[in-house]
Predict the structure.
Amino acid sequence: MTDAKSTEEKILEAAKQEFLEKGFSGARMEAIAQRAGINKALLHYYFRNKERLFEEVFAYFFRQILPGLRQIVESDAPVLDKMDRFVQHYIDFLRRNPDLPLFIMHELRTGPKERLRSLVEKKMTEFEYVRSFIMQIAMAGARGEIRAVPPLHIVLNVVSMCVFPFVARPMLMGVTGISETDFEELLEQRKTVVADFIRAALKP
Amino acid sequence: MTDAKSTEEKILEAAKQEFLEKGFSGARMEAIAQRAGINKALLHYYFRNKERLFEEVFAYFFRQILPGLRQIVESDAPVLDKMDRFVQHYIDFLRRNPDLPLFIMHELRTGPKERLRSLVEKKMTEFEYVRSFIMQIAMAGARGEIRAVPPLHIVLNVVSMCVFPFVARPMLMGVTGISETDFEELLEQRKTVVADFIRAALKP
DNA sequence: GTCTATAATTTGATAGAC
DNA sequence: GTCTATCAAATTATAGAC
């Protein structure tokens, strides 16, 4: 197919980059136009204003926040295996989208509160899977399959350990002084280290 | 004493709030002036421009990022006890400064890269303690006191589990639908849950 | 649909009186 | 030190030709 991207697609692509790098208030319409290889006026032709363009981009990223969770949660593997799979899959995903979490968190924190509510209402599906997962963990705990730890905290721990390195990346590299490639290596190790850590922590 | 705050202090106080809430690019000098009960001109009298005022504020917050670490690391308690103490102490600190991590991370990510370097050079003391802690963990692992897990990953895990709930707070409350007070309760529980989790994960 | 030119607004910063 | 008034620059948004 390799058909040239439509102008609208080019704009969205450019806007994603700019907003991701600078955040809403730091992003510049002019910069987005340049990235897209067009001029400002055309931005406003396709998307009325900065706010609307941002909403489009933000909603797109928000939908991606927990990819592939369904497959994992709905399978009939033991919960510990599901956690393994989640950790591996999620860290790989974040390596391809390293700025996503910080972007979402910052905009959720600084932006208007309606932003979250409207999105949660539409895209509750992923969140349903989170709740399902929590239930499954609770049941596994009840039947002694794993150690009794409050399920919500378990999920929090798992996600924390996956996401945090990406959020804290600049600090981490500043403190340890490790290189770009060492950091990548660290993330690769982390897929198994974190999975092991969780298994050990939940051993009955 | 109860002496009225000096104008400079009022400005800094106001600037901390504004920058913390909105970030550098989202903050408005006008808003800071209003919060401080003065006018814009006076801001520029005390701090030449927005950038300088921000640097002041940012450096202040940055210094606070790992409070009380020294006491914990330098004591001669077993490493696991130190981790307990760190978790309890750090979560309590973050409850009093819930927006600190996200603010630092976002500005480190979006701001000029010199920002980090200059601060790291000055305030390496806290980071030294982190490195000491990592060494202590490595040694504890070598003598079988804890399970053999790469020390850097252990520290990452500990910090992750403490910090992440604060970074992800809006998302967390959106997903689970829990109330403000329930969230506080969750954090309180977390002090012991996380400490336990780590102990279990590191049991030889 | 796309552009150039320009308006309208916001916002950081300064001049100068008190 | 503090204020009012104002400027200059940056930035979003629109008008109108092609």
Observations:
- Chain B touches chain A through 54 residues (CB under 8 Å).
